[in-house]
Amino acid sequence: MLRFRRQALSFARTVTNRSGQSTSLRSTLAILFRLYANWQVTGETCETDSVLLFSNDVHHFHPLFAFGMRTDPHLRANQFFTDAKRWFASRHKRQFVVVTADGQDDDLRYLLGRAGAKQLGRSERMQLLQNPSSLTQQGEQLTLSNFDEFLAVCASAFEYKPEYLDALFKERSRVMSSLVAGRLIYKDNTPVGAGIAIKTGSAITLDWIGTSPLYRGQGIALNCVRSLCSDVLFRGASPIVLSSTLAGRGVYEKVGFSEFGDVRLHLVSISTGA
Questions:
Q1: Among the four 28, 95, 132, 182, which has the fewest Cβ within 10 Å?
Q2: Cα–Cα distance for residue pair 61/56, rounded to 1 Å
Q3: Residue 59 is part of a domain; what is its CATH number?
Q4: CATH code, domain with 145
Q5: CA 160, CA 158: separation in Å to the nearest integer?
Q6: How many angstroms separate the CA atoms of 179 and 39, rounded?
Q7: pTM of this structure
Q8: Rounded CA gap, 120 and 42, in Å?
Q9: Is 19 in a helix, a strand, or coil?
């Protein structure tokens, strides 16, 4: 989900659980981003019934270090945009990311486009609608003792600087207590694939599904996703959702995932006009 590489992807309007209850895509995203913000040691959050804003004191640019979401669709897009810029400027941020959801933020996307905000990425949201094919459990479960190996796979797979990952996962005990499941896949005793499952509202989100570049095309991501789904379903949890790049979509479809909408990240410069 949270890599959002510059590739075309897609997300939907609701996630429905077994009881028939429905959670908006925007609400699910807000929970997920709030969870990541809570894993970071330092930062300031402004959360009301209408907005969720987070500013970390890390100087490196990363979408999770300074982001904003409009959680109330009735809040005027122009008001949200103006207030968010003012808040981040007061925290000495030169830029921040606005997160928008398909079908719920069309007016905000239109305003951001007119204001010259740069779209960082578009991610396809997918949901598991059936039991995953070939339920298996491969690799090792993620623990504090092998957390460094998890970060090494993430750094290699997503080309992230180690300091980004150190900041995002600085509170490792807190991260581990928030996980539903985590997996490391090995090849010749080397960690080459990884992924985690996080509870986000009524759904379970798979995230950080990655394979080291030298080992791609060997079914490692497929094994990791199947293992995570098996772990989650063994615990009786559902539904399971994730965000996918175009390159990864085929892997998730083999497991049984299907598309249900898109999420976009928009980079806003504080100097950008409304």
A1: 95
A2: 10
A3: 3.40.630
A4: 3.40.630.30
A5: 5
A6: 12
A7: 0.83
A8: 24
A9: coil
Terminal alpha carbon distance of the chain: 28
Which pLDDT tens digit goes with each residue over 90-108? 999 999 999 998 888 999 9
User: What tokens appear for 19 in the block?
Assistant: 């009881």
For residue 28, what pLDDT is reported?
A: 84
Distance CA 112, CA 266 (A): 8
Amino acid at 54: F
Q: How many CB atoms lie within 10 A of CB 80?
A: 23
Is 5 part of any domain?
Answer: no
Report residue 230 as tokens.
Answer: 């098996």
Helical ranges in the chain per DSSP H: 25-39, 77-90, 106-114, 147-158, 162-168, 172-178, 220-234, 246-255
**82 and 147 fall within a common domain:** no
Q: How confident is the model at residue 6 (pLDDT cuts 50, 70, 90)?
A: very low
